[in-house]
Amino acid sequence: MAKDLPPPYTAMSRHPMMPRASHDEAARFNFLTHFNRYLSGNIGAGNRLAYEKRVLPAFRAEHGRDPEHRYEIRDAMNRDEWHRMWSALKRNSMEMRQHFGRQVVLRQLDELDAMARQFNEHSGQLELDPAIEQPPYQTAVDIHCQPGGYHGGERPDDVTVGANYDVGLFATTGGALGGLNDGGGQAVVGWVKAERPDWAPKRILDIGCTIGHNAVPIAQAFPDAEVIAIDTAAASLRYGAARAAAMGVKNIRFVQASGEDLSRWADGHFDWVQTTMFLHELSAKSMPRILAEAHRVLAPGGLILHIEQPQYSDEMPLFEQFMRDWDAFNNNEPFWSAMHGQDLKQVMADAGFPSECQFVAGVRAVVDPEIFPPSPDAGEEDYGRAAIWNAYGAWKPLAGEQQVAA
Amino acid sequence: MSADEPLDWVALSGKRAKGKRPDFFENTALDRLYSTVFALAAEVSALRERQDTIERLLDAKGALSREDIEAYVPDRAAGEERGLATQAYIARIMRGFQQEVEAMEAHDPPIMDLVELLSRE
Questions:
Q1: Does B13 map to a domain?
Q2: What is the C-alpha separation between A39 and A85, in angstroms, rounded?
Q3: What is the pLDDT of residues A74-116, one digit of tens each?
Q4: What is the phi/psi pair of residue A127, to 5°?
Q5: Residue A191 vs residues A113, A188, A214, A363: alpha-carbon distances, Å
Q6: Which burial class, exposed, middle or buried, applies to A33 when counting CB atoms under 10 A from its CB (0-12, 13-18, 19+)?
Q7: Of B19, B22, B50, which is closest to A23 when you measure between CB atoms?
Q8: Is B53 within a domain?
Q9: How many folded domains does chain B comprise?
Q10: Which of A7, A92, A118, B107 is least enclosed, having the fewest CB within 10 Å?
């Protein structure tokens, strides 16, 4: 198989909760998988060309200087015919992914709901709390243009949004997350095992777990640990808990809770607090609150780890920042831009993790190489969507260690 | 919704995501056109894949060989039938262009002129 040829949709692992895609439904996802790679790879370079050949020269002529912020580039590029056409294509690709996924899910929702109910009633791995309110950063828009966001539904107690998330992630990422969409979680496991081969965390918290696709591989890799996966969205948790139970993963519980209020857990309760592609879906005020709570419930010597696309920095060219910002304005990710503009090290330090305990590591999706070719390496061509991430983390100092370090 | 009423999955699947959609073009008709054209492109791709499945299954079961398909040459009658079908297909997808050319020759008055004319006479 050619290195850059994505696998067919049918290479996905069909765990029992995964909605069954018909022949043509799978074929539609195949189209999107290739179409997305085409947009970012084959013709994605058009954005840079348009910028360098006409948008930047016109900007210089008008202002007598180079753009000083990614927003200046965005304003100028949004007037460029090519970038508008490309954005229209990309937006449509995202909308088709939702539409196609919802057709798969909704036509078999009765069976999916019944199956989820059965798994969840028997497993005891789902704990919902109707008192949990959906935070405004989750309800302001439907994130990813997914109708209903992570929390909505078509009828009470359904699994529509969770199932739709699972069934179409493959197409959005060009198949780069592996057969169970768990390449991110596998990457985290790979990093931890390499970094601390003998580490045996007992209690692990995953905040903002959605359907648990990145928390389940952690539970699988540490079978003696208890993983608590929390989210505010019951609709995603219902599906996620059933999915884990269907896969036979028993050491994970899905609990409806907000990361902003972890008061049900005592100080130092967890050995490891994990978030994966979560921080960018928060807000300026909630992110520090969640990190402070994460710091409180993390035991001294414990690990906090966040998987995200790289933060913008002075070293990152403004054009790349602008391209990475596309989802914020065109794919309903309104905190993406501000979050990536922050100095995450400082935010982590403010939450209580001393700078000298922090680290940044590069990780990439871990998938079965027999079936899944690696995510295209040309990160600059695949802005914000490549399955190559930064891990922002810290080992919380043991008591007394902090003073020594200071 | 009552429990025994089936979900209208066709209508529900196309639900709009909350959040204002950007207008990518000055003329919003172009935005609509993009949506339709690329949904159709996905559908053509799915059809091709389905046809490929059929060919492979027929081949595997010995009903026909894919080499036969590749080597197939229509005889005169079949060639004419297919040529006509292709002409008709092109006529269907190019109707807008074809009728615009006809309109340039026809010099129709604006329909409002006729509405007013017929309301008077």
A1: no
A2: 11
A3: 999 999 999 999 999 999 999 999 999 999 999 999 999 999 9
A4: -130, 105
A5: 36, 5, 14, 7
A6: buried
A7: B50
A8: yes
A9: 1
A10: B107
Contact call for B12 and A154, based on CB within 8 A: yes
Residue A384's pLDDT band, with cuts at 50, 70 and 90, is: low
Neighboring chain A residues of B7 at a CB cutoff of 8 Å: 106-107, 109-110, 154-155
A and B: number of Cβ contacts within 8 A: 102
Nearest to A37 by CA among A320, A332, A375, A324: A375
Here the tokens at position A11 are: 């290479």
On chain B, the residues whose CB falls within 8 A of the CB of A154 are 7, 12
Count Cβ atoms within 10 A of the Cβ of residue A9 and give its class: 0-12 exposed, 13-18 middle, 19 or more buried: buried
CA distance A347 to A349: 5
Q: Edge to edge, what strands does the sheet with A358-364 contain?
A: A126-127, A252-256, A226-231, A203-207, A270-276, A298-308, A388-395, A358-364
Angle (CA) A105 A108 A113, round 5°:
90
Nearest-neighbour CA in chain A from B20: distance (Å) = 8
B 48-67 residues with CB < 8 A to A: 49-50, 53
Which residues are bridge partners to A283 per DSSP? none
In a domain, B17, yes or no: no
Q: From CA A329, how far away is CA A146, in angstroms rounded?
A: 15
* Residue A126, φ and ψ in degrees, nearest 5: -120, 130
User: Does any domain span residue B83?
Assistant: yes
Domain containing residue B66: 23-120
Q: Is A164 touching B (CB cutoff 8 A)?
A: no
**Which two three-digit tokens encode residue A7?**
């696998």
Cross-chain CB nearest to A142 (options B1, B13, B19): B19
> Sign of torsion, CA A112 A117 A119 A120?
positive
Cα A251 to Cα A226: distance, rounded to the nearest angstrom:
5
Q: What's residue B63's pLDDT?
A: 94
CB contact under 8 A, B25 and A88: yes
* Separation between Cα atoms, residue A281 and residue A335, nearest integer Å: 6
Q: Please list the residues that pair with A127 across neighbouring strands.
A: A255
DSSP H or E stretch at residue B34: helix B28-60
Whether ipTM tops 0.90, in short, is no
Are the beta carbons of A92 and B35 separated by less than 8 Å?
A: yes
pLDDT digits (tens, 9 = 90+) for B17-58: 999 999 999 999 999 999 999 999 999 999 999 999 999 999
Average pLDDT over residues A163-183: 90
Question: Taking the C-alpha atoms of A14, A16, A20 and A21 in order, what is their torsion angle to the nearest 10 degrees?
Answer: -20
Do the Cβ atoms of B46 and A27 come within 8 Å? yes
Nearest residue of A to residue B47 by CA position?
A24
The helix/strand count (H/E) of chain B reads as: 6, 0
| Chain-centroid distance, C-alpha A40 | 19
